[in-house]
Amino acid sequence: MDSAPDRTLSTTPVGADLRVCPLPNAETQLVGVLGYPVRHSLSPIMHNAAFRHLGLNWVYLAFEVPPESLPDALRGMRALGIRGLNLTIPHKEAAVALVDALTPAAQAIGAVNTLYWREGQLIGDNTDAEGFLRALQAAGWQPGEPALVLGAGGSARAVVYALKKVGCRVVIANRTLARAQQLQRAFGAEQSLPLESQALRPLMPALQLIVNCTSLGMEPDSEAMPPVPLDALPTEAWVCDLVYRPVQTRLLQAAHQLGLRTVDGLGMLVHQGALAFERWTGQPAPLEVMDKAIRESPIH
Length: 300
Ligand code: NAP
Known about the structure:
- It is built from 11 helices and 12 strands.
- It is of the alpha/beta class.
């Protein structure tokens, strides 16, 4: 397989260069996101804010790539020496077969959301799982059990993997029960249930965490919320919603009104992005700058 030229990290300071050579210039390093569609992505705002803050001569762009063009896009990445990429819907699973090596997380989850170079090899990683854990931990959550995961799609796979990795017992509830059972088997989760209030109620008093990994509550259906009897949860329980459009979903509003602790979907978005940033640049990500850029962005 082809491999990218071995490049040293570009740390050209922005301020010093601007007077002699406007940016972007011939030393600018390129990273970005491939998706279809991708125009809604908040990642360019978050990463470019981080590059500006650290004075790195890097730029992050969004590329709309239809599914059939992913192999060509990754060949282009190799030929052009693009320093790293994020992948979003619908490319995360297809990329597994197009990289030189997978990290253990990407291998176990079966999906790649971050590409980076190591010793000339294109590595496929999944920072969603670790990003999810870091967002919860940054809010003060500590692994406890059991946890209830709502949904059995791509994000639920990353969340169940992450929770099992830190030793939680996990129950999965999904509209299509067979998909929940499949996920339960894949990661050794404890139980699968239909996503129905009546079926979930007996479980509620013992739960420490609920994570919504369904798209229920996402715009334009922002009045929707998953059918979970939040009133039966212990008051010290946590409710996390991966949906971030809107940021304060109906589920989070209802949890907040009951005095439960909540974590919104922007936390995971920022932390998975910060982990990708660190893989690419080798520098600690400026988390607060990235978080602020996203929260103040007019497009979410
Ligand atoms: P996905 O793979 O398409 O899975 C969608 C899940 O939602 C499935 O479990 C599906 O159930 C369920 N669902 C959809 N419509 C439903 C309905 N009307 N009633 C009940 N269940 C329904 O999607 P995904 O990639 O996991 O993403 C899920 C959500 O997480 C999206 O809103 C996405 O934006 C968000 N997300 C956020 C982050 C972040 O960084 N914060 C990261 C990834 C994803 P069935 O199996 O029955 O179809």
